[in-house]
Design the sequence.
């Protein structure tokens, strides 16, 4: 009997290992997925640890591990949180996916439902899927329809429609992959369309306008290798293009905000014990010129390490280099080097920056974050706060979950201050930009922002969000012919001009503009993987220098599906 028991036990273990091989999904969850906000709320609540929202992209495998921990602490969840957890368990527990919770349009080999009445159910939906011990893949159709209406300062409207697909999966239990492509068209005002989808500001097909209909396209794709060489040790290597964010920030991030073109990159993530490290080398492009000979490629390298002290805080240090005018520089492929000193050894041609950040873990339901950002000037003249080369920025904020014991509610308060000339460089090609869009915080240099947000999960299908931003900025001053007559350091592309611009510049010098921005968003998912967003924004702008005012407001209704 002992021998039979041993054989049975070994058989069960082998079967479990096979199941883990089949269903360990190492493709990434898109950074805009709602699950990230839920995991953040649960981290602030004190249940989860290590969600690394300074480097927030996670694989489906990693998300699943967090959901398993939440399930173990189910007693600490509110009724709505339990329902949200169940919703994401259906989506990310690939080992438990079957005909009871998953539907696919074509094919039967995966064991999912093929009953077309399930299109209108709460089951997870795939166009086609395949699973075995060596590989799995999922084909999903992506669609969107958006109608936007501007009311002030004049009435106008625009509609966007796009369709596409995502092909994703895992092979050999180690390599995750994804390919996404979308193609869209515009009806109504083409000039207004970027108000409702800012990605159009850097979409070549949109602004090229060589065709008789406004259109655009987006594509992403990558390969990602993941391994756990030892207990508690994680290593991931990735090559491709995907939307990324780096650094802390509740409203927008100082380091890499994600509100810019997707980058083509190679990336390494490593963590063991209290230590984690990220190295990233990316390529992108400069501003667009119709003369193709003027267009160029630029490169961006990041190194960042972090120490995480359990139930206390996380401390991080990072550095970045932006360079152009040559191919990939091997010096910046080295993850074990201090970039600023390397840059000096390469004759000081490039744009270097460093940043320090902090996130608290010692209070349940309340989290604090802070980031200090230093662009180029490392040691000298930090005491001269009005010197043009003192290109510094900082951000402090707090996230309060379940305030006043109100379940499913979160409050955010954050202040950001960015000095003149931050993100710019004496060489315009080395500005901290991609496609003439800032890689950093949305307000740009010579500006500050008070940002507040209130988010409430009504239930697992509905969520409402209110935001308020008070933004002050000092803009560059131009004459009637568009010539720059006073450089206030308010443009992330135009750097300080030697022998032309003053060496000392006060914060918010230039053309002073104040904005109060109110935003409201209501999201509902009436049918699983079909979403509706109702969004409204009101902007009250006052030009203090010219004593003029401008009020703008607009709204849009967006429908998206993914199956």
Sequence:
């Amino acid at each position: 009997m002992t021998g039979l028991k041993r054989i049975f036990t070994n058989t069960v273990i082998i079967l479990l290992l096979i199941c883990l091989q089949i269903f360990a999904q190492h493709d990434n969850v898109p950074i805009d997925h709602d699950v990230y906000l839920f995991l953040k709320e649960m981290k602030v609540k004190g249940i989860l640890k290590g969600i690394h929202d300074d480097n927030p992209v996670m694989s489906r495998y990693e998300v699943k591990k967090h959901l398993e921990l939440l399930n173990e602490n189910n007693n600490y969840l509110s009724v709505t949180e339990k329902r949200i957890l169940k919703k994401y368990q259906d989506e990310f527990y690939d080992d438990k996916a079957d005909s009871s919770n998953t539907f696919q349009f074509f094919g039967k080999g995966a064991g999912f439902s093929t009953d077309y009445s399930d299109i209108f159910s709460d089951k997870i939906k795939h166009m086609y899927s395949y699973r075995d011990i060596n590989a799995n893949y999922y084909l999903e159709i992506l669609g969107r329809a958006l109608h936007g209406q501007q009311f002030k300062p004049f009435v106008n409207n625009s509609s966007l429609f796009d369709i596409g697909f995502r092909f994703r999966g895992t092979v050999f239990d180690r390599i995750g992959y994804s390919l996404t492509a979308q193609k869209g068209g515009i009806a109504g005002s083409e000039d207004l369309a970027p108000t409702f989808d800012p990605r159009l500001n850097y979409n070549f097909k949109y602004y090229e306008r060589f065709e008789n209909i406004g259109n655009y396209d987006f594509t992403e794709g990558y390969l990602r290798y993941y391994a756990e060489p030892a207990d508690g040790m994680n290593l991931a290597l990735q090559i491709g293009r995907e939307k990324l964010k780096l650094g802390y920030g509740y409203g927008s991030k100082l380091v890499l905000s994600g509100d810019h073109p997707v980058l083509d990159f190679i990336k390494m993530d490593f963590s063991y014990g209290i230590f984690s490290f990220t190295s990233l080398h990316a390529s992108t492009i400069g501003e667009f010129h119709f003369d193709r000979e003027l267009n160029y490629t630029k490169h961006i390298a990041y190194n960042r390490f972090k120490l995480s002290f359990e139930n206390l805080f996380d401390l991080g240090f990072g550095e970045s280099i932006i360079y152009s005018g040559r191919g990939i520089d091997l010096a910046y492929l080295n993850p074990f080097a201090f970039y600023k000193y390397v840059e000096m050894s390469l004759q000081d041609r490039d744009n270097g920056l460093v940043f320090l950040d902090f996130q608290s873990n010692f209070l349940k339901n309340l989290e604090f974050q802070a980031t200090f950002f230093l662009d180029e000037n490392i040691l000298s003249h930090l005491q001269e706060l009005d010197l043009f080369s003192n290109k510094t920025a900082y951000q402090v904020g707090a996230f309060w979950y379940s305030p006043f014991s109100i379940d499913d509610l979160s409050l955010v308060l954050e202040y950001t201050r960015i000095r003149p000339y931050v993100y710019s460089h004496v060489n315009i090609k080395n500005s901290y930009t991609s496609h003439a869009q800032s890689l950093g915080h949305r307000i740009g240099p010579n500006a500050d922002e008070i940002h507040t947000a209130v988010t409430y999960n009504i239930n697992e299908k509905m969520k409402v969000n209110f935001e308020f931003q008070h933004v002050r900025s000092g803009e560059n001053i131009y004459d009637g012919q568009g010539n720059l007559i006073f450089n206030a350091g308010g443009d992330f592309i135009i750097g300080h001009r030697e022998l032309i611009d003053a060496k000392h510049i006060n914060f918010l010098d230039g053309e002073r503009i104040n904005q109060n921005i109110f935003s409201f968003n209501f999201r509902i998912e009436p049918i699983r993987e079909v979403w509706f967003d109702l969004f409204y924004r009101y902007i009250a702008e006052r030009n203090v220098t010219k004593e003029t005012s401008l009020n703008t407001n607009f709204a849009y209704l967006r429908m998206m599906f993914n199956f």
